[in-house]
Amino acid sequence: MKIIVTGGAGFIGGNFVHHMVKKYPEDEILNLDLLTYAGNLETLKPIEDRPNYRFVRGDIADREFVFALFEKEKPDMVVNFAAESHVDRSITDPEVFVRTNVMGTTTLLDACRTYGISRYHQVSTDEVYGDLPLDRPDLFFTEETPLHTSSPYSSSKASADLFVLAYHRTYGLPVTVSRCSNNYGPYHFPEKLIPLMISRALADEPLPVYGDGANVRDWLHVSDHCEAIDLILHKGRVGEIYNIGGHNERTNLEVVKTILRALDKPESLIRFVKDRPGHDRRYAIDPTKIETELGWKPKYNFDTGIRQTIDWYLNNEDWWKHIISGEYTGYFEKMYGERLA
Ligand code: NAD
Ligand code: DAU
Q1: Helix 105-115 and helix 152-171, axial crossing angle in degrees, nearest 10
Q2: Whose CA is nearest to atom 4 of ligand 1?
Q3: Would you call 153 a catalytic residue per the annotation?
Q4: Which sequence spans correspond to the domains of the chain?
Q5: pLDDT tens column, 155-211
Q6: If we measure between CA atoms, which residue out of 130, 32, 138, 154 comes closest to residue 82?
Q7: 127 part of the active site
Q8: Per the CATH hierarchy, to which homologous superfamily does domain 2-188+219-250+284-300 belong?
Q9: How close is the Cα of 338 to the center of ligand 2, in Å?
């Protein structure tokens, strides 16, 4: 089986490439990534010499490039992680979100339609459902919850989902979609809440908490997300959407305080700052479908997962310090420059 994983130099895609390369030595994993600011080949260092792994740099929204790649590689499956993923960046610069998240997805879908595929999997997000009120803890997102997006990011992801489902209905393309809650774990880019707070707390820098810090996110360890996608690829029903989440709701303030306690740093580092415009209040996933249909169960609860994650950041300072210093952007040229010259 030849599997193209797009966005495999990012946080979740990188963890997924690690997972697949190790678990399926007989499969060929081709990591297609543009290496935007969020792509970091240092994440793939531990597996880059495996015989069943290759990296290709390219843009999923570049039609000519994508079609030439499919013509040459004839992949059996595509798992699409590639995206602009940061809500705050979508508020300041929405256009690239349309290009990558929407047009990148339709370009991949057209290539799959043209060259044939046994499965196209779209990695989506719970943000397509909008948010839930804080005073209704009984409410959860199910696969039937109507789409109701808040940010340019979530709107672009919802749009992509609709194209994926339309290509199934109209062209019979064998697709699946997963919608996951907030991930955390190794290789998480330090612009997102958890790695940002860990890296800043370690440097004794102020921790910016948006608004009142009462917004709730439903945290899932990235390896549980990867296991879920693996299961959907191999056992999921074509044309279906699967929500992924582990019932680990925490307010942002609780998350930040947990990190400070674990690092033995004072709460006086916390600064309440101006809120994110359109800030979603609460996300919470009902994972009943994937649990009952595919037998998925998360291995981590938040308390053990966050402890391990903090330890990972303490033991892998080079990885995130290279990001903060900007050093990681030279990695591609260092590793591939001569080979590609
Ligand atoms: P990320 O920002 O860490 O990584 C995105 C990767 O995509 C990067 O390596 C980047 O270089 C690559 N990329 C961007 N534009 C590209 C393009 N035009 N062509 C090829 N590659 C391109 O993102 P992430 O947090 O790992 O998220 C991965 C996917 O999972 C996204 O689709 C996101 O919407 C979804 N998701 C994320 C979370 C989360 O908590 N992070 C939760 C649910 C769903
Ligand atoms: O729910 C899934 C989504 O989770 C994914 O689709 C997105 O790609 C991913 O980025 C994430 O979106 P969030 O907006 O929830 O993640 P972020 O880490 O940016 O923020 C988490 C919460 O923390 C959110 O309520 C905003 C808040 N926050 C964030 C930052 C960066 C702060 O209070 N301060 C900060 O500095």
Answers
A1: 20
A2: 10
A3: yes
A4: 2-188+219-250+284-300
A5: 999 999 999 999 999 999 999 999 999 999 999 999 999 999 999 999 999 999 999
A6: 32
A7: yes
A8: NAD(P)-binding Rossmann-like Domain (3.40.50.720)
A9: 38
